[in-house]
Amino acid sequence: MTTRLLLFDPAFEQVPEDEADTIAELAEAMPSITEKTYADSGHALRIVHAKSHGLLVGELQVVAGLPRELAQGIFARPATLPVVLRLCPPIPAMYSTRKCPRRAVWR
Fold first, then answer.
1. Whole-angstrom Cα distance, residue 61 to residue 74?
2. What is the enclosing helix (H) or strand (E) of 106?
């Protein structure tokens, strides 16, 4: 099975009519999630991306001759771009130092 990539078109983004309601619901829910996290752990943990375990700094090489469907946005022209990648645990949690926690890479 092959995957066919699409060229970018702003029409692809379709903002739901209730997006403002969804944002308001999230803003209302966040404090209770924080309070539950504190109640469960006894610590005031951030509820997302509790901490970074490392940062990688480097360069992304955009090479010439990419297929048309890949040569979009920042990949449209050859370039060397600075990048920073943050390594963090996938969920906010207190980990024992005796055990290696899972790691994740988030964009």
1. 11
2. strand 104-106
Which pTM was predicted? 0.46
**pLDDT attached to residue 64:** 96
The confidence score (pLDDT) of residue 65 equals 95
The per-residue pLDDT of the chain, averaged, comes to 80
Residue 37 CB partners (closer than 8 Å, separation 6+): 45, 47, 92
pLDDT at 61 over 60: yes
Contact 81, 74 (CB under 8 A): yes
CA distances to 11, 29, 40 from 72, rounded to whole Å, are 15, 37, 45
Residue 53: burial class (beta carbons within 10 Å; 0-12, 13-18, 19+): exposed
Contact 34, 87 (CB under 8 A): no
